[in-house]
Amino acid sequence: MLRATVAAAVTLALVAAGPAPAQGKKTLTISWWGFNGDKLEEYLMKPFKAQCGCDIVYETGNNADRLNKVKIRGGGGVDLIYLTDSFSEIGIKEGLFQKIDRSKIPNLAGVYDIAKAPQGDYGPAYTLGRYGIIYDSAKVKPPVTAWKDLWRADLKSALSLPGITTTAGPMTVILAGTYAGSDAFKDPDAAFKALAGLKPNLVKTYNTGSELVNLFSTGEITTAAAQDFTLAQIQKAVPTAVWADLSDGAYATLNTINITKGAKEVELAHQFIDFLLRPDIQQKLAENGVDAPVVKSVTLTPEQARQWTYGAAMVASLKPVDMAKMNAAKAEWTDRWQELFGK
């Protein structure tokens, strides 16, 4: 959701308005954020349209709004939908998507295991990221090296956390449970007791990437729990901001693509997913700052890879999140979070 919010602020223009589909051509309808739309048109949509001889039209918006539109239309209206894994899990649970025929997506063979079938028979992940810690290395001494460092006394009035309604917010409850030596799903009391211990350090929570960038750039905070796609923007404002190399690992965040239950162009939708996972396409998207690659054969320079979750070792280090369990717990956690931090 966070990423979607950023996208909505940046790219509203890109999409829906294109020329009317030519008569006789098949038309693939895609629901997505529209973020990085110019680059996606150049490196993904344009070559796919040349291959399929089809047209593509778009529906844009954040995760919740777009998923709700598909729900209102009974699973139809678009052929494909891009979502973060927490929202695609909701769509699967509500029967809005259809299972993928993996025999029609041969490029899945070259994808990291974590991205092949993150939600069973449904759509794969086409990019991945991390939820970890960003801090200003010029002000935070010693360096942040583990999740427990969020509770350090020297970070008093220097910390920000994602709001509970963002994609990463509920993961904060999970990590707090781990800090307390418990499982937040089984013992939320312990997790929220640990979160209460963060109040002296917390300046405020944030709901968008631009809010987080502003908190760093104004010097209100020196440290934040955040998704890695915000790092490049933060470093433009604060060049000494760095991604913490956490000894206990960052959490995995996945963006998925699914075929809706009411899709009219199922074959074309499978062709698009396979195209999206083609090594040369993933290479282009990563090189040009669009998405982190999930294809193992993509090779980036250190500078190109700097902003991404990239490489077998880094991917293997990610901590997976059970989205079904997290979504089931979210309502209770949201109420308790608002009670704790809303005061």
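Second entry:
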Amino acid sequence: MRTLTHKGVRIDDTFAEAFGMRATAVVITADSARWARQAAVTMTGFATSVIGCGAEAGIDRELTARETPDGRPGMRVLLFSTSTGELQKQLAARVGQCVLTSPGSACYAGLDGEETLRLGNALRYFGDGWQISKRFGGKHYWRIPVMDGEFVCEAATGLTKQAVGGGNLLIMGRTAASTLAAAEAAMKAIDKVPDAIAPFPGGIVRSGSKVGSKYKGVMASTNDAYAPTLRGAVTTALDADVGSVLEIVIDGLTADTVANAMRAGIAAIVKLGPKRGALRIGAGNYGGKLGPHHFHLKDLL
């Protein structure tokens, strides 16, 4: 692999290969930021990869009371999937099970769009006939009676077909601790980029994968070329001084937001430097066969 060195960190001359997705967003509010976050965290649980979860989701940002429809603290959540039908299914299930159930919560559209997904329109039947349709300020809401009062939910939220999933950075360091430090620095920067999420735990994934497996029916398996303990047993992609690898996967509402998030992550890793963080940054691709979006690392420096 050809590399260039930027402020002491080796950068692979390669690209992250990403693919088109469907995406939506909702705004969750509650009486306190604590409970708005709790509902958002619960809704985005088990949403790391469409390979096994049906959706990828995360908190985009925390909203102040001035930024939400009902003047209470809130969270904006992004939800991604590979088809409109699956995205609708995941949205209704996750809001119904994780937001409707959370004390004091309300849920509003988090994205404008000509095309929409059913939000309150999919959940109103929980009211068993006692739900009330309300139109206010040009928007349509449902008021659903629950045991602590009412669950207010906007009827629909926007859908975008311009979303991109699979932006990624492979972070390679001398030790597990220094590699994690670099990944954490990258995630702190990526969290500040609007309209993008990193859906894995804390934004970081240790079990990067390759497509397919020696076992029939297994869609993905360990990325053996980047597994340090398999060096010598397989064709490795790792240098002799690399002892640990972590990956950050990024989804965004547009290709530009994915690029901005990757750029922010790379800058943070480079700023931390090779002594305290990563020795090398790479990216995962499938030779251009997986998706049309190619984010070349050298263009993001």
